[in-house]
Each structure stands twice: as structure tokens, then as C-alpha cells.
């Protein structure tokens, strides 16, 4: 098992293209071809985590928060980020971060929060736009089924709970090959008419190269004609935050106390109670104040996140309860997301959750 194989598993689960522009997800330190002796999972990379990995003999650290997200210009050991990079390199440790890309997938950070709370019918709170493409291609009628199957196998044609989605229209294509051509049908230098099927299907951006490769391999023509369009449709399976419903409505303080216990929060900062049962719940791991209006728009009774500033609590405007449980507290179960993924994909491999509590905030 080398570093490249582990990163491929992680990026198949949460493609790097899903990360926000400010982020630094991916392999930050390490050689992709190095053999992996063991994987240590943590929320943050600290010097104590590095020591733990070294003591265990593990050389791959998988974190949620990236090291040096803003970039480093010097490596003098003057701050903890510089010391971490220096120490990791000295000890041949690979450091990988799955951050906002893991926030964005339904079974990632926010999906795990919903699971812990017990929410059902969960959806993305703010779906991403510009992530979907439409592929249009033209195929001889005899090969339409096999080309469609190849596209679907490569990942095209998924819409919500449906797969193998396409639109098909019969028509006629024309072509004339020159002396260097090897035409599928017709003769060189002669105009040929072919009964074709126009196939339209959708795919996410990150699968583009693989889908086009599958198209070219399955298509009988020497030169494959196809068009790619960027769609403005929302990608409902990818985005920021999530929301869902409780099986049974709960009284506000009862729910808040349950949340405090589930997440082991030292304290919950919350807005005025609205004196009505809580049924619909919106969540966002980490700093989620930017999603407050979205939480209101879907009719959530409460929005659970972290890092709300003083004046932002007033934005609840007695329409919703804001419950700030803390940044670390809201994201702590990301370690479980990674652990479950890796132990399923590589079951007989050394994967361990770090014992280091990396939360920099303490409560009295």
C-alpha cells in the first residue's frame, strides 16, 4: 500500500475539486510512491500527533484541517506550522488533509453530524453550482446501447436517486473521410449518411476525463464527435451544510441538552428560544454562519454550527434558534468518517484514531 493508493481512496470519496478556493486539501507533505506503514487519523496536525505517529511507527497522518492552509514562506521553526512541516519531512511522514471537500459530500462531515443527531430525509443545505456538465454525442444506432452503458459505467447519468439517465433522439449524421481516414462506414472521399442517435447525459466535473475516455473507447468512429456544456443547475448531492428532520419533535431545552451530551460540548451558546417543538434541524460542521439564511429558507427550527460572532447571533431574528456548539465539537466525528471509509476499503491495514485531543479551546 503506497501513499498514492491511500490518497486515491480518499479522493474517490471526496474529490479535491469540491474544496473551496481558499482551502489546501490533499497531500500536503510526502512522496506519493512511498510505502505506507500505518495511518493515524486526527482532526488537526499538532506536534503531539506527529510524536504519536512516530511512536506507533505510522508514516501517514490523515487530518481534517490542513497544515499551512495560508502557505508558508519560511521554514525556520518559528511557529507550530513551520515546526510541524520540518518534523514531518525529517521523519518521512506523509500528511494529508480532507477538509472542505469532505464537508461537501453527503456522507462526509455534515452527514455524520446528522447521523449522530438522528436526522432523517437529509439534504444538502446549499448545493454547489457549476459542478455539473452535459455531454452530447452522436452514435450509430447499432452501437447506441453499448456506448450508453460505457458512459453510465464511467459515472455519467446520475440524477438524485436515479442512474442511467439520458435523453436520446434519432437523426442522421454525415461525414466524408479523406485519404488518411479509416471510416467506420462508407468509403474514403465519398459523402456518407449514417442513421445516428443523439445521446445527452449529465456528469459531475471531476468525472469528465474518465467519461470522455470511456466514450472514445466504446464509440465505433475513428473521430468521435461530442459536446460538453457547463450547467448552472445545482448539484444536489454536493455542497455546504445539511438539514433533516427528527423522527419525533423535541422540546427545545431537551434537544439542546441532548446535543450538548452527544458532542461533549463544554458549553452551547444559543439564541432566544421560540417556545415551539424542534422538528427540522440544519447543521454545518466548523464555521457555518454563512449558511444561516439558507437554514431559515428551508424552514429549520434550529441551526447547529460553530464560530458564530456576537452580532451574528442577532441575525436569528426570532425566526430560528442558533446553537453554537464549538468548531472542534462540531467536526470531531470527521475522524469516524475517515476511519469507516479506510477500514472498509483496506480492511487488513493499520488504521488508528489519534488519542491526542487537538482542541485548542478549554472550558471551565
Automatic annotation (TrEMBL):
Residues at which a divalent metal cation 2 binds: 64
Residues where a divalent metal cation 1 binds: 65, 103, 327, 331
Similarity field: Belongs to the GTP cyclohydrolase I type 2/NIF3 family.
PANTHER family: GTP CYCLOHYDROLASE 1 TYPE 2 HOMOLOG (PTHR13799:SF14), NGG1 INTERACTING FACTOR 3 (PTHR13799)
GO cellular component: cytoplasm
UniProt-listed Pfam families: DUF34_NIF3
GO molecular function, one term: metal ion binding
Subunit architecture: Homohexamer.
Keywords: Metal-binding
Superkingdom per UniProt: Bacteria
Name of the molecule in the record: GTP cyclohydrolase 1 type 2 homolog
